[in-house]
Specification:
mainly alpha; 326 residues; 2 domains; 0% strand
Length: 326
């Protein structure tokens, strides 16, 4: 604990010196460079808060970390590089002091990027989402292409998850996706957003891309099957093409015969539509799906044409054959 006291004394001296510099120089206060000093003062105040409440903060975050590690985490959180665990554990009044300091600097230089990042992080902890959006928009206007993707992603998340404005979120996600076209997690998020917005064609394109990526990666087929079933749902409810939906359900069953949800969706489809609506034209399907569909489709057709089985019986018979084959 002596080391913490020594560190704290040092940071308090830095804080005092910065305050004296800012208070004593009217020329500096009128210069845009002052924003950097205000930012540094805000960070130092937060560092002092962390060291002063060191034991309490460790308890709040449920981790045993050294003071140096906590200060490193603080800097990363302020710059948006990791989840705001430590900042949330800092006393609220101390965070408000830091926010007031950042605002003072931003009044002198509204485009100071480190201040904008820190301000958006702290404002988000208080639920000031419109202020977060304003800060991130200013930050985006002054960022290079490499940094823009993360900023657009954050803007999209705020609009979608915090402001309940999915339509406003979509353009930001689109910009982020154009910057990171191979980011699977981002593609999945955009797919979920498109489904919510009923942007069916875009959702189909994303599903096809994700299925292709999952297949190329190999390994466990669960994610491929999830996207195939999603394609089925899109074609049932968005495209009103139950025949195409059937093909994707059968493709999912072929890829992972023991997966229960595929059979549940298949039974619901058989109960809602006659066979004349469902039997898919294989020639119209994507080539990579045809090979997965032909075998289970032939089995399903045989059960349907027997004429004496309920939808539930048909599905159970297909399940028995497919799982035995597997």
């Amino acid at each position: 604990m002596n080391a913490i006291k020594i560190d704290l004394l040092g940071w308090r001296k830095v804080e005092r010196d910065l305050r004296l510099i800012l208070a004593g120089s009217s020329e500096l206060r009128e210069d845009g460079d002052a924003a950097a000093l205000y930012y540094r003062l805000a960070v130092v105040r937060l560092q002092c808060a962390v060291l002063e409440d060191y034991s309490t903060i460790l308890h709040r975050i449920g981790a045993d970390k050294s003071p140096d590690t906590l200060l490193e985490d603080l800097n990363r959180e302020l710059q948006g590089d990791q989840e705001l665990v430590l900042l949330e554990a800092v006393d609220r009044e101390r965070r408000e002091e830091a926010v007031a300091t950042l605002r003072a600097g931003l009044r002198l230089d509204e485009g100071h990027s480190p201040s904008l990042r820190a301000y958006s992080a702290l404002a988000g902890l208080e639920g000031r989402w419109k202020a977060v959006v304003a800060a991130l928009e200013r930050l985006a206007a002054r960022s290079d292409a490499e940094a823009l993707a993360a900023i657009y992603l954050r803007l999209g998340e705020v609009h979608w998850r915090r402001l309940a404005a999915p339509a406003d979120a979509r353009p930001y996600y689109g910009k982020a996706l154009r910057a990171r076209p191979t980011d699977i997690k981002l593609m999945d998020n955009v797919l979920k957003l498109d489904l919510e917005l009923e942007r069916w064609e875009s959702a189909i394109d994303l599903c096809e891309a994700l299925i292709g990526r999952m297949n190329r990666r190999g390994g466990r087929p669960e994610m491929t099957v999830t996207y195939m079933l999603t394609m089925g749902e899109i074609h049932v409810y968005g495209q009103h093409r139950p025949d195409v939906a059937l093909a994707y359900y059968l493709g999912a069953i072929n890829a992972l015969p023991a997966y229960q949800l595929s059979y549940t969706l298949l039974r619901e489809l058989l109960e809602a539509h006659g066979w004349h609506e469902l039997e898919p034209e294989l020639r119209g399907l994507p080539e990579n799906l045809i090979d997965h569909v032909a075998g289970p489709l032939e089995r399903l057709r045989g059960f349907v044409e027997s004429g004496d089985m309920t939808s539930g019986d048909i599905v159970e018979a297909l399940r028995a054959q497919m799982t035995t084959r597997a």
